[in-house]
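Comment thread on ticket #2218

A.B. wrote:
> Attaching the input chain for the structure job we discussed in standup.
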Amino acid sequence: MWSIGVILYEMITGTDPFAGETFDDIKFNVRTMNFDITLLDNFGYSPALVNLVKGLLEYSEEDRLSAY
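C.D. wrote:
> Ran it. Output below, let me know if you need it in another format.
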């Protein structure tokens, strides 16, 4: 589900949600959930879509949306 969230974010915004200059930067961005969800607001997408992406990109597996 996490991967679907990343792909969906990239398709909508055209950017990687956890981009960084180094692999350590990317890992830090993932651990701290450092991504710009406001980009979705800037494109005028519905709150439901924004909530879907946020739910799929949830760091904790227990809190993340599931397919079940």
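A.B. wrote:
> Thanks. Noting for the ticket: The radius of gyration is 12 Å.
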